[in-house]
Amino acid sequence: MRKSSKRVIRPPSTLIAPAQHDDLMLAPRLHLQMLLEGQHSADYLHSVAGVLNIAAALAQLHGHAQAQTQYSAAQAIMRALIDANRGPTTREGAHLVAAFNAANALLRRQTTHHLGRAITYVDRMISAGQAGAVAPETADPQGVPR
């Protein structure tokens, strides 16, 4: 008699569909453009910060140190903008656009499983009040996660 296999059968991971990616990224992309044009709103700031939070969580999940640094710097900029309730300067805007474009590319090639884990992680960080993730209601100006 053959010994039974101890392999764990996992459901197949699938990349997020283009429609899901568009749903996730379209409004924050428009909000970023509106911020760059001088129309700042707390909702726009939090929308862009949410995408950066998810991208930072994915970079941490996959161990991408360089991407973590880029997203942490962008999160620090977003935290400062939310605290001051203002739009970005030209230099800040250029950095936010670069980080947002990198986040867009990162999110496009994620599986639904990893995206779900990153969103759960961000929710947990925000509800715990830990520095790093920019909370939708209040921003914590205490440093950047390492």
Explain what this protein looks like in three dimensions:
By secondary structure, the chain is mainly α. The chain has one domain (about 20-130). It is about 65% helix and about 0% strand. Helix 1 (about 20-35) runs antiparallel to helix 4, helix 2 packs antiparallel against helix 3 (about 65-85) and helix 2 (about 40-60) crosses helix 4 (about 90-110). It is elongated and about 75 Å long. About 30% of the residues are buried.
Q: What is shown here, in short?
A:
By secondary structure, this protein is mainly alpha-helical. It has helices spanning 18-36, 42-62, 65-84, 90-108, 112-128. Helix 1 (18-36) runs antiparallel to helix 4 and helix 2 (42-62) runs antiparallel to helix 3.
The rounded distance between the terminal residues' Cα atoms is 53 Å
Give average pLDDT, whole number: 85
**How would a crystallographer describe the biggest sheet?**
none
Task: Tell how many strands the DSSP assignment holds.
Answer: 0
Strand content: under 5%
Secondary-structure blueprint:
Elements: H1 18-36, H2 42-62, H3 65-84, H4 90-108, H5 112-128
Helix pairs in contact: 1-2, 1-4, 2-3, 2-4, 2-5, 3-4
